[in-house]
Amino acid sequence: MKNFIIVLILLMSTAINSQTNYNFSEIKSSPDLQKLLLKIMDEHKETRSSMLLEFIEDAKVVDDIVTSSRGIYSSKIYVKGMHYAGIPIAEAIFSNNSIKLTTDTLNYSGKKLLEKIESENGLTPVYYNDRSYDWEKETETINLRVKFVNGENLALLGDKDFAVLKIDFKPIYKIPLAKIHHKIKKFKKQPDYVLSSSTEHSIYDVFINGIKIEENYTYDRLHLNKYITSNVTSVKIIAKREPDYNEKVYYSAAILDQSINEDVKIIEGRFLGDKTVVFETSFNSELPYYPEAWTNGSDLRKEKKLKEKVITLYNKLGKAILENDEQMLNSMLYQRQFEVQQVNYDTTFLTARILWGNLIERSVYVNHTVSKDFEIDFSTNGKLIYCHPKDTKEMIIFEEENYDDPFNFYLYEPKGSNELKIIR
User: Fold this and answer.
1) Confidence category of residue 134, pLDDT binned at 50, 70, 90
2) Domain residues for 238?
3) pTM of the entire structure?
């Protein structure tokens, strides 16, 4: 429907020129954009100054990429034969990773059909006197805006109204980690277990199946699925009143299935004082998929060289990021990311793409530091560990001038292996 609206609105333009050389609807990536620009450059060598307004005169081709001494390539182009799937384009603005197309003025040919579509589907509101649509796709971000000049809405278009289509092309990632969403299964029932706490002026720690939760989460809501490995899950909460607060403090909580917004288990509330109060319970955690996670891990409490293994893993990760070693990063992080997205039924392409983009961006850092002085917390009978550094903010920090970027992971060692793995 959305793609139909794009074509439908753009079709309401003047008749196409006899030349139809340059079809922008065929562009699906930055390389495609470069190829079309090269074609226009090649076919307008003699008339470049008049046909290509603001064309960069010193533009040149290096490995099929258009570059210029003026930095990021950008050019506003008016040539005959530009169109989007047969819809005439009056102006095209190229840049390295985007294209912005402006149609000729619109006519009234679609008035009745647009009026019907708008009444039946409730098209998005008008912003700033224009009609604007946005679509976020895996390799493109698309914005279509109908600019009202003398029209009132899509059903009452004026003869001076026009449309602008802007497409930003994202990098095309081929590494499996960045494309995990294609592997995620959807199920008929998809429970989303959440610990919901109700309290003020209190400090508390949460343990799920014996695992102390170290992630940053809002105190009133913690998603549990990624810490669940079987159909029974234990919950332990250790709470007390804030040290500088002297009034009565009350803590209560509930475990709920957010997918159906129903309580699974109520944790009876209690008043908190200076002494810690322990809440313990368990619940039936029925998931359509249970990750292997750390269940096949070795008992690391027996490992004499555990600290050396931790340092080795984080140095290995730091080296892979700074050297942009895609295969190594995929190897180290794929299973963790797959399990987390699967237990959350996360089929969106943005999740893994953002993670991968962040990893790649860290390659610009000049150095990384790994903690050498840290304590290790053991959980799940010694199978899972989390390290608390004493000499740095986190176990690994990436540095660039006055900026640092720290992070940390849960680790385990599969039985039969001699190397630690990142799992959460």
Assistant:
1) confident
2) 193-284
3) 0.80
